[in-house]
UniProtKB/TrEMBL annotation:
Entry keyword set: Signal
Lineage: Bacteria, Bacillati, Actinomycetota, Actinomycetes, Pseudonocardiales
Region forming the signal peptide: 1-22
Domain of life: Bacteria
Protein name, per record: Uncharacterized protein
């Protein structure tokens, strides 16, 4: 159970890293597309929600 949570946290962190890397390379000139910003914000909010849920689960399991 602990390993599965760790794997989920690592997977979520990898998704965040890939998202940041994709955003860095997609801008070209450093400016984001007008509609791309809202989509990226929504996706990042979803990822943050997932990470918060994982953190909450891990905090409540009683393990060190």
């Amino acid at each position: 159970m602990r390993t599965a949570r760790f794997a989920a946290a690592v997977g979520a962190a990898a998704l965040v890293l890939l998202g940041v890397t994709a955003c860095d390379g997609a801008g070209g000139g450093g400016s984001a597309a007008p509609d791309g910003g809202a989509a990226a914000t929504s996706e990042l909010n979803g990822i943050q929600s997932t990470l918060d849920g994982i953190g909450s689960d891990m905090a409540g399991d009683g393990s060190p």
